[in-house]
Amino acid sequence: MSIWRDGSEILGLAAGYCERDRINKWTAATPVLVWSATKGPAAACLLHSLQENSISLATPVAAIWPDFGQAGKEAITLAMLLSHQAGLVALDSQAPLLDYERVIAALARQAPLWPPGAGHGYHARTFGFLLDEVVRRLNDGLPLGRYWRKTFAEPLGLDFWIGMPEDRAGDAATVYPARSVPPREEDPFQAALADPASLPARAFASPTGLNRVSSMNSSEARTASLPALGGIGAARALARFYAMLARGGEMDGRTYFTERTLSWMKQPLVNGPDKVLRIETSFSAGFMKDPTSQEGTKTRKTFGPSESAFGHPGAGGSLAFADPENKIAFAYVMNQMEPGVMSNPKSLLMVEALYHESSTN
Known about the structure:
By secondary structure, this protein is α+β, with helices and mostly antiparallel strands. The protein is built from eleven helices and 13 strands.
């Protein structure tokens, strides 16, 4: 775990081992798979690229990626793409997760599974490919993973990769699946996952491959650039990235984002029932927000009490976010997963303790 305030780390905790055999101790520099917490850095890459090219969120995706504008996708905007409104959560044609070109071709042909803009649903796997292709189209074919290293990771000194170099792939901690526990109550999402034809089941299995947790420990998976679910890094690196966002997009005298772009991260674009996760969710341009009631109050506090906070959880419990109002950044990563694809009680208790301590100081 790593917590930052106003650009400086105020707490860093590291404990445990990198594998069950207890050979290598976990340190503050230990990199580990963070699953969907990768989506935050991935979204930042696209938003930065839009900023550098003076492109607004209202721009149709097809204006940048012409092949995308078929099968009823002509009017899908970048805002819809980034906020999970595009209806492209799964593919009708089979495409392997590790075959980028086949996935992109399938996404270009794919018809939306609901009218774009008519509600939202979590794009668990396809999200990364959609963002990656737009980044490549805007940057002479540069993959999103390399854009991340060039624009953020290297200047900020972050040990975080979206596609690890082969000579570092062996450094990552081994990830272990959650232990099976009976649900405390009926869970509509888990119930839907048991039906392969359901939208949630399709979303979490398309594109195909690397569905077992153990498969993500392979060198092939660690070196693949998978912006929706394959980011690997240390908690301190992820928190430092969000610390930059929490203090107005500036770190070490360098400004990465304008206030306009930061507002895209902070302002929700959708809020309500999620067609895939089967709970209330809220998304800004690429980042998750806490959902709110009709009165505007938070119905969950995954990202703390501040309405300006944004970030992203990952399967098994990983969590990272920025709180610009209080200039706080938080990241928690682990290799023993807990049940679920959202934040778990352990990470939520850490966030609660953080703000309780902040309020007493």
